Amino acid sequence: xxxxAHTSPAVATHPALQHxxxxxxxxxxxxxxxxxxxxxxxxxxxxxxxxxxxxYRTSYPxxxxxxxxxxxxxxxxxxxxxxxxxxxxMAMAVWSAQMGKRGLLMMFLVLTMVLGTAFLGIKAVxxxxxxETHHVPGKYFQFHEKVPGTDVPxxxxxxxxxxxxxxxxxxxHALHMIIGMGIMTYLLITAYQGKYGPDYxxxxxxxxxxxxxxxxxxxxxxxLLYLIAxxxxx
Amino acid sequence: xxQSIPFLPPEASTHATQVDLLFLFISxxxxxxxSLIAILVIVFAIRYRRSTHRKATQIEGSLALExxxxxxxxxxxxIIFVWGxxxxxxLNRPPxxxxxxxGVGKQWMWKFxxxxxxxxxxxxxxxxxxxxKIILASQDxxxxxxxxxFRVKSDVIPGRYTYAWFRATKTGRYHLFCSQxxxxxxxxxxxxxxxxxxxxxxQWLAGGxxxxxxxxxxEKLFQQLACNTCHRSDxxxxxxxxxAVFGSTVTLNDGRKVTADENxxxxxxxxxxxxxxxxxxxxxxxxxxxxxxxxxxxxxxxVKSLKSQQAMPNDNRNPATVSPSxxxxxxxxxxxx
Amino acid sequence: MTERHEHVNYLNANYGIRSWLLxxxxxxxxxxxxxxxxxxxxxxxAMAVLFRLELLTPQSDLVTLDTYNKLFTMxxxxxxxxxxxxxxxxxxxxxxxxxxxxAKDLAFPKINLLSWYIFIAGxxxxxxxxxxxxxxxxxxxxxxxxxxFLNTHVITAAVGIFISGFSSILTGLNFxxxxxxxxxxxxxxxxxxxxVWAHYATSIIxxxxxxxxxxxxxxxxxxxxFHVGVFDPNLGGDPVLFQHMFWFYSHPAxxxxxxxxxxxxxxxxxxxxxxxxxxxxxxxxxSIAIAVFGFLVWGHHMFTAGMSVYAxxxxxxxxxxxxxxxxxxxxxxxxxxYKGSISYxxxxxxxxxxxxxxxxxxxxxxxxxxxxxxxxxHDTYFIIAxxxxxxxxxxxxxxxxxxxxxxxxxxxxxxxxxxxKLSALIIFVGFNLTxxxxxxxxxxxxxxxxxxYAPEFQVLNVMSTAGASIxxxxxxxxxxxxxxxxxxxxxxxxxxxxxxxxxxxxxxxPPTHNFEHPPIVHSEAYDYEHVEEMPVVG
Amino acid sequence: MSEHVVPIKTYxxxxxxxxxxxGVTVWASFADLDFQLSGHTFPGxxxxxxxxACTKATLVILFFMHVKYSSRLTWAVVIAGxxxxxxxxxxxxxxxxxxxxxxxxxx
Lengths: 234, 337, 538, 107
Known about the structure:
The structure holds four protein chains of four kinds. By secondary structure, chain A is mainly alpha-helical. Chain A has helices spanning about 25-60, 60-70, 75-100, 100-130, 155-190, 200-225. Chain B is α+β, with helices and mostly antiparallel strands. In chain B, about 30% of the residues lie in helices and about 20% in strands. Chain B has a five-stranded mixed beta sheet. A five-stranded mixed beta sheet of chain B has the order 4-10-9-6-7. In chain B, strands 11-12 form a two-stranded antiparallel ribbon. In chain B, strand 6 (about 145) and strand 7 (about 150-155) form a beta hairpin. Chain B is elongated and about 95 Å long. The model of chain B is unreliable at about 315-335 (pLDDT under 50). Chain C is mostly helical. Chain C is built from 15 helices and no strands.
């Protein structure tokens, strides 16, 4: 558990070394640990929403299935692939930084941003679709779908909870994506300025950790929201 | 017997005596340990004060002591745990033959309705020496039904029923408080529980004007809402026969088994699709917004009143449509369009 | 001690409002926090004074019921979220954790400053809610009352708390990273002062619990704003789910408040007993145990709330278990005094007070963990008394003890000993007079949050109000004489109490980078056998 | 710098595995995978979806986020985070799953 106490004073002072750290190694480990701890608070933050989902999904399985059926699986699946792709390009960006390949790093950052934008664009299309069909919770909410496998109308109140959670969870996720895009922009600019190399690329790493985390959230959101109904039917 | 202790509220139920005993037991534990610590701190502080005890003796610790003061408190707390849990289970399991009274909390008053239809506000008349179960519903926010003299408390939660039960042991008038903060007049949501001799209680019951018993009113509502078009016992029934449903175990269409209690009946009226009885289609619409909290109580009571009957009142054949899997009892739930 | 009038320290390194508002020095940020939480403390205290006065009579006369409800709500919000939670961690922890482990600063100094600004933003928003008309949800924000039935500034206050939560998260994050990565050479985990252990445990709760209340308050805001949501039974939701999510944070939050206090006591008791602490590793691990078990017991706030009986049983037994590590700590502090050489300096008086009052507060928790008794005392004044014994009798005592103990280090000046002892005594007496009667009131059945009450409760309420006035004076005194001492107090040497710990091995006040030479640790904490005698004065 | 550089090949393999997992999840949701066990019906496709989601998340954490090559401290932080999430879910469901138990006397 790396009880690293301070080792000897900095061997060579790197321009990015902050005054209160002894050396780059200590600074890197501190930043990385800080990022991980932050991500765990994010886990708990989304955890509250997942708890709400779990409680109401078990209470109102029919309405949740009916609500889920109205989501566009094709777009959801495409978006999952897009996001996984962006995680891959992000991982490659970190690799490029480790290798000191500035051009590659910038290319992969741009690719990540392109894929992130694609994700948000597809999400916007889906949101628009929901808006048109009055599935946005609130005053104009309407829901006339049947519980899958039956001809019973699902209780609109319970379906509204599903859509509230849908918008809450995907909206919170999208907000994290947008913040992630901001981080990517920052990384791109600083990478252009040539700040990163084999000796120092902690911001790229931490940006990557954040991006992957957002990806993981989606990996759970996709099946929970889009795939809980038995689309195959009985 | 514990009444001689000052500052104990009146002990007016069987449960109160038991709670007080446990309270005194824990109190003695608390007094013992806090005195122990206080005395040790004072004695050490004086005995080893700096003016007379210049040099401290360094002591690392003692494993035996550490184990001792981990295990002994653990043992004591486990005694308290078991004792308290047993009391709590008793409090959550009303005796089967309890007399039932419905209570509705709303901002900021208590309304009670007795089986025979008597209603009262901020007063609750009960007979001494009988098990009384209060079925509680809230019309708005969370309230809490609290009778200190009975040591009984139950939150009253909108959207479902909760229960409190007691057996009063002493006649008299006792406080009834709302103990869950419920808005501006929270501290005004108080009332009295009036414990009477059974004969006086009967007299009181007979005295008030009523508009029919709860179950009778429930039956009227049942027909008004056309529940009986589907919930019937002949072959045309599209919903389960409700006779003898209450208190039975119901098998649902997903294989789950639930007990048909008040909350189940309530949920079946308001959210019919939540639990659909095996063998039936989930075709019942919700009655959310169409029935008041009190109307719900009447419907529930009506369904309960069918418990003793073998079939719905309009028909005494056995329900043909009920799934054979549950031989003991047909089940409840829903129909009508 | 050598006089060091002229040495450059963190206080006089530079001047001007900018040098404070843009500082990244953990010590200056601690001072910023000290000033701001003192403000919130007195605002919250003023509300308490008002409603204690109202409670002198059974009728609602001094203020209307609406006002009364706002007063206790704002008292709770101010005290819990803007005083108790940041108090020791953000002030003493901020100041001392880096010094105690021999670091130049926290791992993320800018984030530390950011967390103060976030705190102020949240506090300002909440204060705005107070001034604009107040909130009357109770600090617990129970739904559906808070989402559908009240007309007050619920969203503003909730957003204020939401924002300030991030300050708490960032502080915790900073501590965890700092403690893991910035310890001086030779300072292994089991050589760390217990104050640092306590803050480590606190930080775990801050980072893992706070996000849950954040999302919960967001959901409350959404439900209130858009009338869609997950807690309102009319929308198909379950209000009890709110309570689960709320208490998942708010019960462990109690340990955010008390654990650092325990850390302070673990420093004070050995110092004024001139003795190594008894059972070091048991105290250290009990902090971690409290942090972990503290997350498993939230349901004991909901025993009467319509939770399943089975869940109540599980929460009950876990609640009893969490009592054990606290008991272990109390026994160890007491044993530390055995055969010590005890001096009655002010911090030690506060430690005595803490041990006594925390013991009562903790033990009365047994009533609440026990299902059978809790049903009766839940939501009565018994609860109020219990948690004030922990929060005020415990935590505030420890906070004041810690402030006095490290005041010479923070300011370079001694507090006036006589006044300090007097006010410690006043606080102790006033506190007990205020809150002990409330145990009895509670068992007699007086519900909490009542602006008007049954006449038989009056005598005890009058006692309580009388105690509160004494307590109020007790709190004003330190504020006055500590402020006075910053200018006129006797100069303190580097180590006026002859304490161990790296923070005492540097100048008072410390230089900006804490240590002239990076310290190297060779011994365990609380090595009082080898420390020079306690100086008579500073 | 003591950090580990993960070869590109690993990244590509993980990437393809994640895509495959997504495909299987979608397929499973259209297939009828429900099965019976001691009288209860279990939604097979949901179970498959959740298992795959957990696997995918683990792959991302281990490889893309380099946890496999990280210190024990990082492992501890990750495990603690998910452990606490499970605490939140499990202890709350401990209430919901047993609501109604004991509240009515058996007849």
